[in-house]
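Methods — Computational structure assignment.
A single polypeptide chain was analysed. Its primary sequence is given first, followed by the predicted tertiary structure written as structure tokens.
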Amino acid sequence: QLQACGGGLVQAGGSLRLSCSASGGTFRSYTVGWFRQAPGEEREFVATVTGARNGYRTYYADSVKGRFTISRDNAKNTVTLQMNSLKPEDTATYYCAADSRLILSSVSTPKEYDYWGQGTQVTVSS
């Protein structure tokens, strides 16, 4: 199970930290990613950190590079998304997702993730 939290309302230029907590399974073996979905839009990739097999590599969407940082704490079964310099276009419902069998070419594809948490709303005002 995955549980996401940390969303909220923030002004443009501000920061938020999202957390995704996992239970069950061998956490370190899972690739854990963040996706977001705005109303009327498709779910899009934000960032991911791979599991131990792929060396905990991080990947980011171009739109968030340099502003967002994903990290994981295997001892706490948690993945964190630090979001800085937020923009109104970052407004969306953010979801965390996990999978233990992803190949690197698929890390940005939502349908390749088997496990999803509930969403947490991020609203950035201008």
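Note: DSSP finds no helices and eleven strands in the chain.
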